[in-house]
Amino acid sequence: MKLTRQKHAKKIMGFYKHNFHFREPFQVLLDGTFCQAALRNKIQIREQLPGYLDGATQLCTTRCVLKELESLGKALYGAKLIAQRFQVRKCSHQKDPVSGSACLLSMIEEGNPHHFFIATQDQDLANKVKKKAGVPLLFIIQNTMVLDKPSPKSVVFVQKLQTNQLVPEHQKQTIVQLKEKEGLAKQEGEKRRKRKRAGGPNPLSCLKKKKKTQEGQEPSAEKKKRRKRKRNRVKTEGVQSVQKNEKE
After folding, report:
1. What is the DSSP letter of 101?
2. pLDDT-based confidence at 210, cuts 50/70/90?
3. What is the chain's Cα-based Rg?
4. What is the C-alpha to C-alpha distance for residues 241 and 171, in angstroms, rounded to an integer?
5. CB 63 within 8 A of CB 88
């Protein structure tokens, strides 16, 4: 049974590694309900979870989760002690704390860019997590931690990704950040502004070239003939005058 459970987890981890780029150490966000269930079932989360996920893990929580556990008093005192041992991730509710479930949901917004796992026994929170693509869900059944199979939302997302219908949100942000770092975004904007709109042809180039017609060439030819006749006439008259003078 243990081998079957580990094979099941390995297959699911392969799905998230390949399609959503999850890498070690795996960051697991835990809420108070998961810590309470682990305490009740005598589960050593820090020792058992890395073996189950087949990789190093970082157990994390948020200030909102810790505040919520404090407000619930002695009933969840043991769960609070467990949660206090974990790393605290910064959330956006420093001044105005919210419920633990609302805080964890805010941590996986915009495509879960930090690749968090969510560990909870809260069924309402689990249902909301399943509506987001690329968020692995952990829960406890009896005395065993279980990695839930990929949600239909995640499966559909991967199918669309494979047909090049969309780009993951975290990849879009990465591309924008890289462009800003290299100054490419600004250059592209300048190129767009400098680009001239396509206009019509130059009106001067559309003018028809004047062709030399035969009519235009004929007057110049006649002028040449007249000049030639005039020169011949002058020569003839000169010769005749010379001959006349010789006779006299």
Report:
1. H
2. low
3. 45
4. 108
5. yes
45 phi/psi in degrees, rounded to 5: -60, -50
User: Is 57 strand, coil or helix?
Assistant: strand
Structure tokens at 86: 């974990």
The DSSP 8-state label assigned to residue 211 in this structure reads: P
160: CB partners within 8 A, 6+ apart: 166
Q: What is the SS3 assignment for 116? A: strand
Q: 């390949």: which residue's tokens?
A: 18
Residues 104, 100: Cα–Cα separation, whole Å: 6
Contact between 136 and 47 (Cβ < 8 Å): no
Give me the residue label for tokens 């087949």: 54
Q: How confident is the model at residue 215 (pLDDT cuts 50, 70, 90)?
A: very low
pLDDT for 216 beyond 70: no
**SS3 (DSSP) at 183:** coil
pLDDT in tens, 80-130: 999 999 999 999 998 889 999 999 999 999 889 999 999 999 999 999 999
Token pair, residue 100, equals 């633990």
Give the CA distances from residue 85 to residues 11, 82, 115, in Å, rounded to whole numbers and listed in that order: 30, 6, 21
Residue 111 near residue 104, CB atoms below 8 Å: no
Kind of pairing, strands 87-89 and 144-147? unpaired
Place of tokens 């390995």: 10
Which two structure tokens, joined as six digits, stand for 149? Answer: 């199979």
Contacts of 67 (CB under 8 A, 6+ apart): 97
Cβ–Cβ < 8 Å for 150, 16: yes
Residue in 151, 119, 143, 136 with CA at minimum distance from that of residue 17: 136
Take residue 235 and report the two structure tokens written for it: 């020569």
